[in-house]
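Budget justification note: compute hours in this period were largely spent on complex prediction jobs such as the one shown. Inputs:
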Amino acid sequence: MKLDSHFNLDHTLSCGQIFRWAKANGWWYGIVEGNILKVRQDGDELLYTAYPEYVAEDFIKRYFRLDDDLSNILRRINKDVEINNAIQQFNGLRIVRQSVWSCLISYVCATNASIAVIENMLRNLSEKFGDEIIVNGKAFFSFPKVKKLAKASVNEIKQCKVGYRAQYLSEIAKQVENNPNLLEELRKSDYIELRDELRSLPGVGPKVADCVSLFAFDKLEAFPIDVWIRRVIYQIRGAGIPRTKDGTEKPLTVSEYTELSSFARRHYGLFAGYAQEYLFYYIRSKDR
DNA sequence: GTCAGACCTATGCG
DNA sequence: ACGCATAGGTCTG
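Corresponding output:
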C-alpha cells in the first residue's frame, strides 16, 4: 500500500501505546481483531500480509489512523521545546486505534507495572483464554473474548500473573457480559462524560480512563498522565515535582492529576493526546 | 474533599 | 550476588 502522508511504523509500534506487537526479521507481527498481521515499511510503501485471510486496506488505514492529518496535528501541538524535540525525533508516530475491550483490559493490567511485565500479563491472558491460530507452524493467540474471561474464576485469571488485577478483570468482564452494550454505548458521550463513566469500572482510575478514551474512543484531547509525563509537564512549566522529605517523588494525587491534565489540554489543545504520546516516547528514550 | 498505605509481580538497580 | 525499590495507578480506610 502506498502511503500518502507521513507515517513511521517503528515509532508507532515501539512507543509503548500497544503491547502485543513484536518485530522479527524486519517484519512486525501483531494480532488485531483475530487477524494476524505481518507488516513492514519501506519508505512510502506499507507492506502487509494477513492470516488466515486477506484484510482490506481500509482496515489497516483505520488501525494505524492513516486518516489523521498528522502534519496539521503536529503543527498545532508544537507549543514548547520538549514537544518540538519529540516531534523532530519521532515524526511519523501515530496513535493506534485499538478496540475498546482489549484496550480497557490492557490498561487495567498496565497499572503499577513495567512494560515488560505488562507484555507478559497480556501474553499469558491470550495464551490461556484467547483462540489459537497457527501460521506456518507458529502459534498466535488472539486477545481473550469477553465471555471467556467472564466465565473464568479469579484464581484462573491470577495464573496469568496479573496479581491483584485479576479481581478487576473478572469484574469488568462480568459487567460487560451482562450488558454487552455497556462499552459501545459510551461512544455517544463526549470526552468528559466518557472519562467519568469509564472511571466507574473497577481498576479504572483517571489514568486508565484517559488511555481508553484516547486509544479506543478517538478522544484525541485526552492526556493520560503517568510518572514520566508528570516529570515532563513540570519541566515544561519550569517547576519541580512535589517531593517528600527524603527527596523521593510524592505519589500523584487525583487532584494533581486533574490539574495537570487540564493544563495539558489548554496548552496543547484538541490533539493533546498526540502530544502525550510523542512526549512519552521521547522522555523514555532519553532516559536510557 | 484529601491523604497515606497496601498491593501482585518481574525487572533492574545498588 | 541478592535484597530492595520501582513500574504507563487504584482502592481502601
